[in-house]
Amino acid sequence: MSLFTRYKGYTPLWPNVSTFRQTNRQLIFLVLGHVVVLAISVAYNAYMIKRLEHWWPTTPLDNYQHLNTQPLVDEGFFNALAKPSSEENAVVTCMYTDSYATAIANLGHSLNRVNSTAKRLLFYLPENISPDALCVASATGFIPHPVTRIPPPHNGKGTHERLMDAYSKLNLWTLSESGIKAVVHLDADTLVMRNFDELFSLPYNFGAAPDVYVGLHGFAVEFNTGVIFARPSMDVFNDMINKMQTATYDAIQADQAFLNQYYAADAVRLPYAYNANLAIKKRKPEMWQDLKGRARIVHYTLVKPFLAEADNTGKTIVTIDGLEDNVKSRMGEFDGVFDEELQEWLDIWKETYQLYGKKLNQCMRAGTPS
């Protein structure tokens, strides 16, 4: 059988080339049509998002204007109040990792500068903190106060990796057992600029300043727990421990999310002067300009001068000797918006080292915090 007769019954897939070309053309038009529809959809969504930014309800803070010139505190009224015993008031900060030792030392000196009358307690987890780091952190006045770790509910599911120990802050409410009637908690990344003793006279059980974000969320209804006022109570503490297992909230923010849920309708809104979050300066510079002149406490949220990493993880320990260079290396972040505040932190650190250098060096001789 010849080659030609062998394939005599063969039928090609496309009986004629014109049919193939027509099918191919239809396929191309179909693909192009989908691409055009997709492009239109993307453009429309981008347009709507842009419009949404303009439609999104603005707050008086987004439209901030320099109007109010009244002092934050009525000094005459405050001075007429009976002053509680300093032993009944406490300023508390928490230490979960060695990388915050120098920050707490600086915070302690900033409290000395404003003549804070309350006793100072440093909550720390003995299993996490080295003796050398504890020595540095307590060199300027904080009294070490070991606490038991409070684990996150549901074995930490949904909680941010850096906040696995943060629920230990709830130990604040156990201080009623030590005779403490009022407490102001300051995160270790804060710095005190002016006296805030008036907070201890508040008749309420809980207060905090609203949170601030640089993105669309902006000036939030939720409060930030970097600075809180609370009246300790063992009954409240036990109630919290029980309810944190069943309450529903976004676990990623750990204790902050829980406390927002627990005190949802009962938290007293503190003025931003008590928690001058750096995000305010990025979000609304005009507001920061007015706020800075009366801020009691500055909160270094977006850039932490004592940490090495841009994401503020704190995995690298910045030594005392390297702290100044570290602060300078972090200047320029966020287009240099916070350079002035970073320099202020550094200036106070230089004071801290000048006054407490002997103690700090003794800690160093015992071994660099690690």
Question: How would you sum up this structure, described in words?
Answer:
By secondary structure, this protein is an alpha/beta fold. The protein has one domain (82-366): Spore Coat Polysaccharide Biosynthesis Protein SpsA, Chain A. The protein contains eleven helices and ten strands. The protein has helices at 3-6, 17-55, 75-80, 101-113, 131-137, 234-243, 254-262, 278-283, 285-291, 323-330, 339-366; strands at 89-95, 119-124, 143-146, 182-186, 190-192, 206-212, 219-230, 268-269, 276-277, 297-299. It has a seven-stranded mixed beta sheet. It has a three-stranded mixed beta sheet with strand order 5-10-9. α4 (101-113) packs parallel to α5 (131-137), α4 packs across α11 and α5 crosses α11 (339-366). The N and C termini lie far apart (89 Å). Mean pLDDT is 87; it is low at 1-8.
What's the short version?
This protein has one domain (82-366): Alpha-Beta Complex (Spore Coat Polysaccharide Biosynthesis Protein SpsA, Chain A).
- Please tally the helical runs, counting DSSP H or I stretches of 4 or more residues: 11
Instruction: Tally the structural domains.
Output: 1
The low-pLDDT segments are 1-8
Sheet with most strands? 7 strands, mixed
In the CATH hierarchy, what is the class?
Alpha Beta
Known CATH architecture: Alpha-Beta Complex
By DSSP, the count of extended strands is 10
Strand order of the largest sheet: 3-2-1-4-7-6-8
- Helix fraction, binned, reads 25-40%
The fraction of residues assigned to DSSP E strands is 5-15%
Shape: globular
* Separation, N- and C-terminal Cα atoms: 89 Å
User: Can you identify the CATH superfamily?
Assistant: Spore Coat Polysaccharide Biosynthesis Protein SpsA, Chain A
The arrangement of helices and strands along the chain is HHHEHEHEEEEEHHEEHHEHH
Mean pLDDT: 87
Report the radius of gyration as a whole number of Å.
29 Å
